Amino acid sequence: MQIIRTDSLRGYRAIIALGAVLVGYIAFLLLANYHSQIELQKSGSDQMRLDTEKHADAIGYFFTEQKDHLKNLAQKREISAFYENKALGMSMEYGLGYSLSGLGKVFDHFLEHRRLAGDRTYTRITFLESDGAVLVDRSAHNSKPANEPNWQKFLAPEHPEPQIIVEPRGSSWQIMISTPYFFKGAFSGQIIACISSDTLYRHLIQNTGGASKRLENILTAKGEPLFLPADLRPGGEIWGSYNFIALCAAAPGEVQRLEWTRKNGSKVDMIAIQVPIRDTPFFLVMVAPAADLFGHTSPRQLLAVLVILSLAILGGVAIMVRGKTRNLVLQARLQEAAESRQAVEDKNRQLEQEIRERHLAEQALQESEAQYRLLAENVIDVIWTTDLDLKFTFASPSCESLSGYTDKEIVGLTLDQVLTPDSVELCKKALAELLSPENLARQAYPHFMFPQLELRHKDGSRSVYIEVKGSLITDSHGRPKGVVGVTRDITERKQLEEQFLQAQKMEAVGTLAGGIAHDLNNILTAIMGNIGLAALDAKVGSQVQDRLVQAEEACLRAQALSQQLLTFAKGGAPVRQLFSVARLLTESTAFTCAGSSVRCETSFPEDLWWIEADPGQISQVFQNLTINAIQAMPTGGTIKVWAENLTLGTGNDLPLSAGRYIKISVEDQGIGIPAEHLPKIFDPYFTTKQKGSGLGLASTYAIISKHHGHIAVASKPGVGTAFTIYLPAVERQVSPQPEEERGLLVGKGKILVMDDEEMVQKVLGGMLARLGYEPGFAGDGSKAIEMFVQAQEVGPAFTAVILDLTVPGGMGGEEAMAKLLEIDPRIKAIVSSGYSDDSIMADFKKYGFSGVIAKPYRISELGKILNQVIMNKA
Question: What is the value of pTM for the model shown?
Fold first, then answer.
């Protein structure tokens, strides 16, 4: 206990010394804070005075500048011209009215161009004659107050310099600048300009406060505030309730205190500083809460804080001393208890170690069994065992999702009841090889694997393709007693492999189709060109002309067929054109229904909007939908097609942005689509038809997506199916375009044609010559560049260039165009190709071309595009 008293005494002294140090330190901090507050109040007052004076100077400069503006306005030639005409006796009809109109324009220009940070400085300007009559009165907003002022009181010939006038306007004030006008030394009128109070307040008063609580306003000599903003609370209460006359009488820059009573009855101590605004009858007043400058704490409050903190520290010291004594006694008792408890714990640890070692072996066995059970019950693959007769003795629960049999049902079944005969034969043959005499003699049984077996599902609805890996189970003597294996479902992988093979076939077919379409377009170009040249021959009779027209229409039908081939082959970016979807729908559905037992009904409003899309691809969409509808009605029926204008707002239920759309519906009366098939109908290669490819609706979905549209489907088996398509409509109003005249647009100049087909060169030569141009030909891009450079050097240069995109084994149009642009950036070039859906054709200007023309084309189309490019109309 003596030790405890000595330790306690040392602890007491340390705690008391610490308390005294803390009390002294806090007193030092409070005294330093008191002196810093005094200095802060002084610097705050000085800064507030300096800020107010700077702001007053800025406002004074503003008013001086406005006086100068008005003074300059009075010196305008238009004013003196008016009085000169008036002195000459001109009337309003002969000269004086024109001078007055010019004077009004000067005033309008003054109102419009005198601005402060973008806002009008003046709201009204009035020119009075010497008798007070209003000569010119201009308002910024073409509105005048209900009660016009007595203008004669503003006549001030005795003040030759501009004056600032303040007039009451209801509950607010109107600030005006007035200057007299003297013509040949005689007082002839008065110019009065009304300053916008909103602009003055917004840019010279409101924007200066920043985020602080300081408030500013301009006072008249009578202490009346010029601005009482309704949205300035609580500041508005100050300007509307306090009398500032005494403040204006005080010395400039002197800090004064005022007490402001809020609406709720509470009082706030405020400080204010007023500074006169030079060359004006105004004062600038800044008001701020006193707490912002002098702080919220007085020296008396600091002394009270010092006393409270000292008492708190002393009380804490006393509590710590008492707690220290109790802790020392308690520590001694705890030490004795800890020693006795330590001995008991040592014995307990020895006993726990013996029990733990006894249970470790049992726990390891249980964990091993639990892990195997967990693996077997949760693995996705099926783990199974059979005897040597291939009868199942065990299967994991996952066998139910694979075969339809539960793990209980499959036990006792043989492979013959689960697999197809071919798969069972493979398994039996493999087992016989495993149990060969050589393997039995050596007791070496290799693992086996079947990459693909076919399993019959329990319900008989489908086959499941599986991959099997396994090995023999042996007894303790190494003799085989069964088979263990793992089965994995590979049905989806097999389907993907089949789809991949199908995609490769379709890609090969697509490449072939693209090549056929390209060659067909070249041939059609030669045919249509020769037909067009023949039709222009005056010697051709009317009967031959009719046959030429029919031949040209047949070529156009072949062109549409080649476009479908290109869309199927390439699926490229849409080559957009502006057209009416109503006509395209009518033609596409009627063409597809021709020769079938299905009738098509169409309905379109007269004001149906136009779209900007690829006509070939959009036609393919509705041909696919019509074909599906015909196939869904083998005994005949009616297909209904209608469209309507639709405007979608933000937050609509469709995956589309806000804007204008055309909603197109295609409805049939067919067998319908089962509900389980609806989510898959747009998947590639998904089909329920024996001869279907599964590409029709997939390509339809892809085309609609590329046009930033949406397609939806609703179907009821036995009733029919309805497809709804949303396509973006053009934002501008489009009027139907008149049919183009068949007359030719001729011209002159040299045209360089780059095309590898000789027949295309020949027909283009005839077409260009008929149009008045001189053609030159190159078989590839290299030759075209050589001819272009030579023509520039020797002359005459080529007026325009027509480049074919695809040149087998040579430089094509894209590469040639890049090199030609380096030679002459101002070159006028037209891109042409049998691949009309090439990305360069869709965005030709990006590659430097001035125009585009897809093969095949008429001679009139060639003349039109050449005229547009040469005349810079493209």
Answer: 0.41
